[in-house]
Amino acid sequence: MFWKKAMVLMLTAMLAFPLAACAGRQGSNSAVSEESVTAGETAEEGNGNILVAYFSWADNAVLSEDVDAVTSPSVIPPGNVQQLAGWVQEETGGDLFSIRVTDPYPSDWDDCLERANEERGADARPELLENVEDLERYDTVFLGYPNWWYGVPMALLSFLEQNDLSGKQVYLFCSHGTGGLANSVELITEAAPAAEISDDIFDCYEEEAASSEEDIRGWVEELGQVVSGGDLVSDLSGTVTITAVEQEE
After folding, report:
1. pTM for this one?
2. Residue 167 pLDDT > 50
3. DSSP string spanning 130-159?
């Protein structure tokens, strides 16, 4: 009888150990998963003093079923400026903001150009879906846009007039055709006269935007706005300062 009881106790202990081990592993995995979510949410906050705002046709058009990927390539996500903005955001750790209109543009390039020309002729200010929240906390703004009709999309002027960039350091990046920057810088300067707009501008031909990752990352690095590890920022004087990146409640 003694040996039977002993065997029962031994078997019970052997069965209980794997169950306890499994429970321990499950608890460990749950903790890692929760920690990963928290870390991801913190990373999405970005570098709190840098804003990367951009206007992209791809974010402002409803794709028709018969959209031509050859004649209208930049309307298919990721669009030219949209892709450039993403690389700038990755380098700076800044917050990404897409400038979007309430009335989307046609996905056909010729139709889009026609509407853009009408807006330009009327000096229109297209209505925007939203503006930047808590703009005061940003002291550096990267502003991206395409060259439309030797200038800028009129929605960009809507953004500049509704979001005061006075006293902020502004860096421009542009995707364009053969017209280059044309009058775009002058138009932006007129719309944001009190902003500190840098003469160091990144621009590329629209057909080269998709292959400009290395160039635009290098441009950001030369500006001294690269974030390493989420909290290390080099300013334009060449000195390095530590900034605290806190997650807002």
Report:
1. 0.71
2. yes
3. ---TTGGG-SEEEEEEE-BTTB--HHHHHH
